[in-house]
Amino acid sequence: MVEQIHQRFQGSCMMLMRQTGDGVAFLGSCFLVHSDGYLLTTSRGAPEDADLVVVPTSTEEIFPRMTRDQVAPLPVEVVSRDTAHDTALLKIVPELEIRIPDGVLSDGERTPQGATVMALGVPFGYYGVHSVLATHALLAGRLQTSDGTRLLIIDRRVQYGDAGGPLISASDATVIGILGNIFEPTHFTGVEPPQGIALHTNLSYAVSIEYGAAMLAALV
Amino acid sequence: MNTAESQGENRNSDSWFAVDIHPWVFFSSATIIIGAVVLTILFHARIDDIFETIQTSIASGAGWFFVATMNIILVFIFVMMASRHGDIRLGGSDAKPEFSVLGWFAMLFSAGMGIGLLFYSVAEPMFHFISSPTAEAGTPEAARRAMDLTFLHWGLHPWAIYAMVGLALAFFSFNKGLPLSIRSVFHPVLGDRIHGAAGNIIDILATVATLFGVATSLGLGVQQVNAGLNHLFGIEQNTTVQLILITTITAAATWSVLAGLSAGIKRLSELNLILAGLLCLFVLVVGPTVFILNALGENLGHYIQYLPQLSTWNETYEATTWQHSWTVFYWGWWIAWSPFVGMFIARVSYGRTIREFILGVLFVPTLITFLWLTIFGNSALHVELFGAGGIGRAVQDNIPVALFVLLDNFPLTAITSMLAVIVIITFFVTSSDSGSMVIDIITAGGNPDPPKLQRLFWAVLEGAVAAALLVGGGLVALQTAAITTGLPFALVLLFMIYSLFRGLSTYKEAPGFSMLPYEHGRLLRTIPSHPQPEMVHGHVMWRPHRKNTESARGRRGLFGKRGKQ
Questions:
Q1: Domain coordinates of chain A in residue numbers?
Q2: Is the dihedral of CA B84, B88, B93, B98 positive or negative?
Q3: Secondary structure (H, E, C), B327-371
Q4: ipTM at complex level
């Protein structure tokens, strides 16, 4: 089942980059959600002042090169942004023939707690590893922040480059969240641990997908 | 972009002047068909003799081969249904069925069997009852055996053949991206050569065989309808009446095929099934209801119990030739029709899993067929065994009249006979329009939604061929010729088993997302970057206490780790 999910979403995840002159610098991950070229990512990962591009990462090679010295990026624009829920909707500027399976997006409510989920992203994009990697985790729980944002907690430590990638339910192969960051409770509650006691967490969070789905629904 | 129809939408247009033809297949097929019709009209007596001799030789020498082939295919289909391949969805894991379950069944049944069943549901049991190969004629045992044999000829075996051809075509087209065309099933062996001369020849043969099969059935069928109308209303049996019938049926089929699958063929098939259902219900209610219901269970039980014995029977120890004109004829007939019916079934089955496909194509039509055969066949047997009789003689005199003679035994004869005529005509239309659709697709290079002008051309040509052969002679000759293609096509079917098995064994679901490369972009070099605090800690806005947020930021370095104090 997990293998089939990976095959299904193989071409969806891309690198989000900032164009600077003749170069592009990695910003995070994003993923296709509509055949008109719409992609979702985190709002904070898509700076307003940047020339944004995306780089497809799927490759025909079985063992692709770890680092890509040159890439062929596609220009994108931010068409909608929800900073309160850290979600941004991008659109690929050139018109391309894109094929997307039906029913890609779900919601954060359907997948039961404890279910297997898959995370896709470019975890080490900042360190020159330009490949999408898949990992699986358990849906450890659901939480709501003080401003009502719905978060999905998984028992896997995501890397910074994963932010903006899809969190996929293994039971129905649909996206249920946008990967965020390591889940550090102090960032959410403000309660700091006492001096001398470190807080270790291997949990991460994703923003539930309904915010992104609503943004997409408003446009298409 | 997720339906079979959408595969053709970029190649098609609603314009009447749009064309999308495979030049070799289209023009060669049309030329061969017109040439063969002219030759047949000129020399039909001779051609009839030649193909009759070939058909007799095939029946006597290769009967065992047909029997073996039919059984191998039935077993193969059962294995496919139970195997892990049953989970594969035709069109890919995200494909959605194009038609509702009812619409799908209606089209399967109407294209696959409808018309023959109307005539033979009464006639065949009666033939076996009055001339039984395994029991004393006219006895209850002969009646029981008659239903066994009729079930054998119209049951799982023919539908397994259709399922196999349909499955192979649907799989190679919808899952492998090959054209919806007979040539595509040869891909595992011929490779890309299917797009060359070899593939053209295969498609031309399929087109010619399909058109002759449908056109000759139409030509012979209107003679039967005319016979029925004569029995009912005294309408004269002549060529003019038959030409009017061909024109009416062709006009309706042309409208249906031009309207498309959803608006035309599907609606007609559903109407067909409703009308046929009403007729069935009427006979069940006013006929010998208890006898029919008793017989249904008993017929099914006998069929299941004796299927291995019946389906492997070769007359080895009887030294008779009964099977030549019955079982072997039927097997050749179903096989010869399988490219047409299989192709149509493939076209309407997009989005079904292989297991659903087999359950739908094999079992549901078989059960409907058995219900139909029992209602009409056993009603006729009841009249012969316990009633006034006379149907056996009517069958021997004129097969199409048998259905009407049966209806004469029940009340409201005029209404039910008229309903029967309408059902016969609508079954003809649905066989004709689906045949035209199949030819349209093949000659358009596998485009599942061919342009209107081409649909009009083939639908009209089909009627024209039937009319020309009716007037000029040669309907039987060409039909016999079409049936003789059953033997070579049986070999093709065996090959198809290998091809399909190989295709399924190596099949991997295509990735769900795909995007054509952006060819106007330029290559840019990648430059190192680092995550920025505002990007990593964007979520601090969710913190309830701003003050704490600031202090936390102040105490933390990049990446959320504790910095230098």
A1: 10-101, 116-216
A2: negative
A3: HHHHHHHHHHHHHHHHHHHHHHCCCCEHHHHHHHHHHHHHHHHHH
A4: 0.87
pLDDT tens, position by position, A31-52: 999 988 999 999 999 988 889 9
Nearest Cβ partner for B542 among A26, A35, A188? A188
User: Quick check: helix, strand or coil at residue A137?
Assistant: strand
* A45–B517 CB contact, under 8 Å: no
Nearest CB neighbour to B524, from listed A23, A86, A102: A23
The answer on B458 and B554 residing in a single domain is no
For chain B, the domain total comes to 2
pLDDT digits (tens, 9 = 90+) for B70-91: 999 999 999 999 998 998 989 8
Average pLDDT, chain B: 83
Chain B 516-535, residues with CB within 8 Å of chain A CB atoms: 516-518, 520-531, 534-535
Indicate whether B338 and B231 sit together in one domain. yes
pLDDT band at B141 (very low <50, low <70, confident <90, very high): very high
Name the DSSP letter for residue A164.
T
How do residues A111-126 score in pLDDT, each as one tens digit?
889 999 999 999 999 9
Domain coverage including residue B548: 532-565
Q: Would B527 be classed as within a structural domain?
A: no
Q: Do A180 and B539 touch (CB under 8 A)?
A: yes
B449 and B550 assigned to the same domain: no
Closest-CA residue of chain A to B550: A190
The verdict on B557 and B427 lying in the same domain is no
How far is Cα B91 from Cα B79, in angstroms, rounded to an integer?
21
**Contacts across the A-B interface (CB distance below 8 Å):** 169
The domain defined by A10-101 carries CATH number 3.40.190.10: no
Question: Is domain A116-216 classified as CATH 2.40.10.10?
Answer: yes
Same structural domain, B423 and B540: no
B208-220: per-residue pLDDT in tens? Answer: 888 887 888 788 7
Q: Which residue has the higher pLDDT, A138 or B489?
A: A138
For A176, the 3-state DSSP assignment is strand
Select from B510, B515, B537 the Cβ nearest to the Cβ of A56.
Answer: B515
Q: Which two tokens stand for residue B307?
A: 């299927």
Verify that B469 and B545 share a domain, yes or no.
no
